[in-house]
Amino acid sequence: MPFAKGDFILIDFVAKIKETGEIFDLTIEEIAKKENIYREDEIYEPMLVVFGEGWILEGLEEELIKMNPGEQKIIELPPEKAFGSRDPSKIKVIPARELTRKGITPRPGIRVELNGKPALIRSVGGGRVVVDFNHPLAGKTLIYDVKIVKKLETDKEKIRALIHRRIPRIPAEKFNIRIRGGIVTIEIPEEAYFIEGLQYAKRGIARDIEKFFPSMKSVKFIEKYEFKREEA
């Protein structure tokens, strides 16, 4: 049966630009290698989606919520349901010296950040630079080949997925989770202790649990250090 707001699912997908066939996002390692776009620093695995949270494009979510676990579908999103139409007012001309002051040598095709906003340099000439603040996929029709891998049913499954969303480099099954009397206890594996931003991740996990599980009273994180002693 179709899903509802608040449901947790895992999806696999390959996303392409319709006009060019270029893949701009995907979750499947085998296809990334086949298409010669595999990156060592990327994690290829099903993505967590919680309906109603805005983690994916609204147009894509509108189609997914009508599907069933295990179903695969090709979804086409026109610009108005994806990243919108291109806005000419977001194309600006600035003096080249504004970039050189920031240590940037302006060249067509490179991406920069100006006033906290990402932009693409379109052209350079006469001491002026044309920068485009439109989203790179604005004006594009997108094609998603998407499969709903699984619906997460139990609280423990959902919490494990939320942990993995915050700490993706550590296998989810290495986190020991106990739920008792409204208290969630999460034992963190030793290989996660020195991950940069671990404290922020723990705070985010706690906020997620507070938000998605109103019956839970608190979250405890355990970091256990075992001593390896030689026997006498």
What's the gist of this structure?
By secondary structure, the protein is an alpha+beta fold. It contains 5 helices and 12 strands.
Secondary-structure blueprint:
Blueprint lengths: L7 E10 L5 E4 L2 H6 L12 E4 L7 H7 L7 E6 L13 E5 H5 L10 E4 L2 E9 L2 E5 L9 E11 L2 H12 L9 E5 L2 E6 L9 H15 L5 E6 L9
Parallel strand pairs: 11-12
Antiparallel strand pairs: 1-2, 1-3, 1-9, 4-9, 5-8, 6-7, 7-8, 10-11
Helix pairs in contact: 4-5
**Average residue pLDDT:** 95
Helix content: 10-25%
Tally of individual domains: 3
- Number-wise, the strands total 12
CATH architecture of the largest domain: Roll
**Kindly, what is the distance between the CA atoms of the first and last residues, rounded to a whole number of angstroms?**
62 Å
CATH topology of the largest domain, by name, is Chitinase A, domain 3
Helix/strand order, N-terminal first: EEHEHEEHEEEEHEEHE
Secondary-structure-based class equals alpha+beta
**Total helical elements:** 5
Protein name: peptidylprolyl isomerase
EC number: 5.2.1.8
Keywords: Chaperone, Cytoplasm, Isomerase, Rotamase
GO biological process, one term: protein refolding
